[in-house]
Amino acid sequence: MILYLDASAAAKLLVEEPESPALAAHLDALDDDSTIVSSALLETELRRLAVREQLGQSVVTGVLARVDLVEPSRSMFYEAGLLPGRTLRTLDALHLVTALRLNAEPLVAYDARLLTAAGEVGLGAISPG
């Protein structure tokens, strides 16, 4: 299984929120054949979160060590711009198109707009907890 980890989910691994334990347990329960992937955008998003929350960057490095990061191609930026959903934000669109390109399912996210857009394009999504 290829699981796509969006920034709205990965952030819960850095900053304790009500869903954090369930998300961590879900990821820990993945079998050895499973892969966690995300766009390379995730690194910047998490490092900026760590700066805002005054967390050590080593915590971010630890989370990213579990994730295979994929560089978005030029064509992915184009595709992301054409996705349906008037309220879908730019970075969320890039995450969604990356998940689609990788045939990653489920998408793990907690952002309502991204979850709606995933449903509109037929991508299974979960929000543990």
Could you explain the architecture of this structure?
This protein has about 130 residues and is an alpha/beta fold. The mean pLDDT is about 95. It has helices at about 5-10, 20-30, 40-55, 55-65, 75-80, 90-100, 110-120, and strands at about 1-5, 35-40, 70, 105-110, 125. It is built from seven helices and five strands, in the order βααβααβααβαβ. A five-stranded parallel β-sheet has the order 3-2-1-4-5.
With strands numbered from the N-terminus, the spatial order across the biggest sheet is 3-2-1-4-5
- Rounded to an integer in angstroms, the radius of gyration calculated over CA atoms is 14 Å
Name of the CATH architecture: 3-Layer(aba) Sandwich
Strand content: 5-15%
Class per helix and strand makeup: alpha/beta
CATH topology: Rossmann fold
Give the end-to-end Cα distance, rounded to a whole number of Å: 20 Å
- The total beta strand count reads 5
- Give the name of the CATH superfamily: 5'-nuclease
Residue runs with pLDDT of under 50 for 5 or more positions: none
Helix content: 40-55%
Shape: globular
**What is the overall pLDDT average?**
97
Order of helices and strands: EHHEHHEHHEHE
Number of H- or I-type helical stretches: 7
CATH class assignment: Alpha Beta
**Biggest sheet architecture:** 5 strands, parallel
Our count of domains comes out at 1
Give a concise summary.
The chain has 129 residues and is of the alpha/beta class.
List keywords for this structure.
about 130 residues; alpha/beta; Rossmann fold; 7 helices; 5 strands
